[in-house]
Amino acid sequence: SQQGEEDPQALSIQEGENATMNCSYKTSINNLQWYRQNSGRGLVHLILIRSNEREKHSGRLRVTLDTSKKSSSLLITASRAADTASYFCATTGNQFYFGTGTSLTVIP
Amino acid sequence: KAGVTQTPRYLIKTRGQQVTLSCSPISGHRSVSWYQQTPGQGLQFLFEYFSETQRNKGNFPGRFSGRQFSNSRSEMNVSTLELGDSALYLCASSNWGDSGANVLTFGAGSRLTVL
């Protein structure tokens, strides 16, 4: 399977702390994306990083990509209770391949 | 601009029945893809349609089928329902294949429960 894997599967932090989640994948990619899913809802696109980029920022989000290690990380700084959700990485070849997700809980 | 609309949002069926789910993509998006999400298996790709043609297909049995209409609206059908088909079915649209970025916009999903 080309499906990625996020690590950790679950993460619980206090509001104001930073949250880091990692994604590993198996094949070469065109780009890697991160999505967020609130409980029982559809996924929402957060950020895209192309295969020739190493780091990208968007607001409180920072994404890194290491194609030699086939891995990516998503950092959420100064977390808020509203960041509580599941986070998925997705790689794109001829279709999207989603990881298994990290469940983030931010405690107020 | 309106988002991706999925209907129905919730439905309950019994084993052996069939179900049809509908998805209206964002206006102008020609690609519609479907995913099955379950707690144990995560997000599993079902199929993708682009301009009324199935372009990619996941590893699901033939009981799962879909189609796309000329207005890009898509339906998926599951026949002879099994208990294991209980899941959240997500539809996503994109302008994949056009010059824009290939980002997926998801609907809220259709929650299917098979009894």
Q: Please identify the structural class of chain A as seen in this structure.
A: mainly beta
Give the beta-strand count of chain A: 11
Distance between the termini of chain B: 37 Å
What fraction of the residues of chain B are assigned to beta strands by DSSP? over 45%
Mean pLDDT of chain A: 92
Q: What coarse outline of chain B follows from CA principal-axis ratios?
A: globular
- Rg estimate of chain B, integer Å: 13 Å
Shape of chain A: globular
Largest sheet of chain B: 7 strands, mixed
**Helix- and strand-based class of chain B?**
mainly beta
- Overall residue-averaged pLDDT value of chain B: 92
What is the subunit organization of this protein? heterodimer
Number of helices of chain A: 0
The beta-strand count of chain B equals: 11
One letter per element, helices H and strands E, the order of chain B comes to EEEEEEEEEEE
Q: Low-confidence spans of chain A: pLDDT under 50, at least 5 residues?
A: none
Summed up, what is this model?
By secondary structure, chain A is mainly β. Chain A contains no helices and eleven strands. Helix content of chain A is 0%, strand content 57%.
Describe it for me?
Chain A has no helices and 11 strands. Chain A has strands at residues 5-7, 10-14, 19-24, 31-37, 43-50, 55-58, 61-66, 71-76, 85-92, 96-98, 102-107. In chain A, the strands form 2 sheets. In chain A, strands 2, 4, 5, 9, 10 and 11 form a 6-stranded mixed sheet that branches. Chain A is globular and about 40 Å long. The mean pLDDT of chain A is 92. Chain B has 115 residues and is mainly beta. Helix content of chain B is 0%, strand content 52%. Chain B is built from no helices and 11 strands. In chain B, strands 2, 4, 5, 6, 9, 10 and 11 form a 7-stranded mixed sheet that branches. Chain B has a 4-stranded antiparallel sheet with strand order 1-3-8-7, with no helix packed on it. The termini of chain B are far apart. The relative contact order of chain B is 0.33. The model of chain B has no long low-confidence stretch (mean pLDDT 92). At the A-B interface, strand 4, strand 5, strand 9 and strand 10 of A face strand 5, strand 9 and strand 10 of B.
